[in-house]
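Milestone M4 deliverable, item 7.
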Amino acid sequence: MAVRHRLIQKPPAAVWAVLSDAERFEEWVVGTSRVEAGEGRWPDLDATLRYEIAIGPITLHNRTIVRRSEPNTVLELEANSGALGTARIALELRPWGEHTLLILDEHPLRGPGGALHNGLLDAALQVRHRAMLRRLARLCESSEEPSRTPVGQAGHPRSA
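Output delivered:
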């Protein structure tokens, strides 16, 4: 299981504002591009995003669904990578003084990713998570008021 944490120099509400802005998803999730709204309003329960992930010369068409959403506290996602299977991604926001301790926990659920899960895969995820949390912290800490764009409504797709 790949678990990583980062202290973000903003309160949980500011971190949540970035996490709940689907327009910013590709800015902090490593490897994503061409993010567009799916069903529902992000990050409400069962809302989805569709996006591409490039792994070298391979491009995967992924879909992520919100499985648990507690504003300013918890966001749990299930990422579906088609033939590669699915993964659970949990982001927990803990108040830490005036700041936020963000805990990222990701592990495979179904498909080949789950069957092939091992220490080497966890090591690769740790590298990706370090970059993701660094990007997320930069986004949160660099803006006073992150934008909150309504997502999941017709006419709000985002392409990169």
